[in-house]
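We modelled the chain as a single entity of 327 amino acids. Its sequence is:
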Amino acid sequence: MAHLLRGLAAAGGIRVIAADTTSIVEEARTRHGSAPTATAALGRSLTAALLLSHVLLKDRRDRLTLRLRGDGPLGGVIAEAGLDGAVRGYAQQPGTDLPLRADGKLDVGSAVGRGELEVIRSHAPYGDPYSSSVSLASGEVGEDVALFLAQSEQIGSAVLVGVYLEGGVVRQAGGVILQALPQAEAGALALLEANVRAFGQLTDAMRRTSLLEILNELCWGLEFELLTEDALPLRFACRCSDQKALEALAYFSTTEREKMIREDGGAEAVCHWCGERRWLEPAQIRGIRGDEVRCPDCDALWYREGQATMVRADETCACGRSVALPS
């Protein structure tokens, strides 16, 4: 079962967060039908989002979104997680699969390419999302997250994330963040750095021992203290629903919705986050109600009753027309 552990080392000078996400990444692979390289990129991103949520969030209702935007064939990866242990995500081109690197590892860096890593924090129950980003260091995810924490949060961190597939199936997946807190002593950090350098591949260690033993290895000589008496359960979970599918369909005009009914007998909605497919019957589609304002030129939806503001008055529509909304 996927789970997360939290701890401290070096008399509270080093924060430790680790997760076994094997079952989550395998579920994501199955849901999206992703190829090995895409699965590794998505799995590392899902894991990193879960770890970062325990670094950057404070409320269980808050959400953290990690987005990789690169110029590689993968097109980008996005993962969203929270302190409740729920995570979801997808790769834009899940069929992406590249030849192995010279060292026999999946070439996630080339699949992602050059670009940026963006982290968005959405705080409940109010407040605008807060976003920060850094240029991708390698596209391998772990190095990129470490760079983000160093540049955006001024926290020196070692970040290990990995996904191991065998026979096209995810056998091991997980991640660890080791962070230097302000009270960390130089000697403790030097020993931690030496431990990380000697550690090797995370997924190799996961094949031979438990997550707890891995943390003891990484924190050798630093008096590791486990803070989670019971491991925190993790899961792949999406917030899609029939109602949200109908809300998305509301962006289409009445004429377009009637055409779907006439030609297809309804409409299929596919959630890009989890791959769930929903069939919407004609009665559901025709039941979409609510005052709306559309562009007279291109029919783009400007405003719909009950939904968040899409565009504001005096902004410019995609077609170039000035937006005019009723007061």
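As a brief sanity check on the tokenised model: Residues 36-56 form the longest helix (21 residues). The chain has two domains: 3-236, 242-289.
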